[in-house]
From TrEMBL:
It comes from Fodinibius sediminis. GO terms for biological process: regulation of nitrogen utilization. This is Nitrogen regulatory protein P-II family. It comes from the Bacteria. InterPro entries: N-reg_PII, N-reg_PII-like_a/b, N-reg_PII/ATP_PRibTrfase_C. GO terms for cellular component: cytosol.
Length: 112
């Protein structure tokens, strides 16, 4: 199992979400976030009341997937989130060692 984290432009999320759903990838967690760094789009940065420096508003998308689906998911996000400009975002893929279902405590262990 793998954890995919994608930080993408807010205005690209709906397109990414539709493309993932179309291919059957429907389970995800989505959060609004503010990012900063060399990937920030200088034309879309803004001041924030919570954070005094300039940030770009982003969507953080998280998905846990079987390893054999990771490349397809990453490719879909890449294709549908890219504008070709700075600030398009970043994706990371991390190993998942164990999952625990909150409802009943059922655990699964995965080889890393």
């Amino acid at each position: 199992m793998k954890l995919i984290k994608a930080y993408i432009r807010q205005d690209m999320f709906e397109t990414v979400h539709r493309a993932l759903n179309k291919e059957g990838y429907t389970s995800m967690t989505v959060m609004e976030a503010e990012g900063m760094g060399s990937y920030s789009d200088p034309e879309k940065r803004h001041g924030s009341l919570k954070f005094p420096t300039l940030h770009s508003k982003v969507v953080k998308l998280e998905m846990v997937s079987e390893a054999e689906h990771v490349d397809a998911i990453v490719d879909i996000i890449q294709e549908h989130a890219s504008t070709g400009h700075e600030g398009d975002g970043l994706m990371v893929v991390l190993p998942v060692e164990r999952s625990i279902r909150v409802r009943d405590g059922e655990q699964r262990t995965y080889s890393v």
